[in-house]
Amino acid sequence: MFRSRYMPCGECGASVDRADVSLHECTPERLADYQMFELRDDVAQLETRMRRYLATAAGRFESWLAARHVRGGA
Ligand SMILES: [Zn+2]
Fold first, then answer.
1. What's the CA-to-centroid distance between 30 and ligand 1, angstroms?
2. Of 1, 6, 57, 73, which one is least surrounded by beta carbons within 10 A?
3. Residue 17 pairs with which residues in a beta bridge?
4. Are 34 and 44 contained in the same domain?
5. How many Å lie between the centroid of ligand 1 and the Cα of residue 4?
């Protein structure tokens, strides 16, 4: 069976040489990119969910409250 010399890091997805796997340290940037990639579907749906929420009574109230807060009204 073919076995690649490299394997993806389970944490950050980086290609890691199997011989040096214990030396690998995830960089925060790489880790963040990988986590964003894993969450891409959620991220893509965020706006849709947000719009749906804002159309509900609770969402409309929060919009009103936020707008009032931003304007600094009492
Ligand atoms: Zn890693």
1. 8
2. 1
3. 6
4. no
5. 17
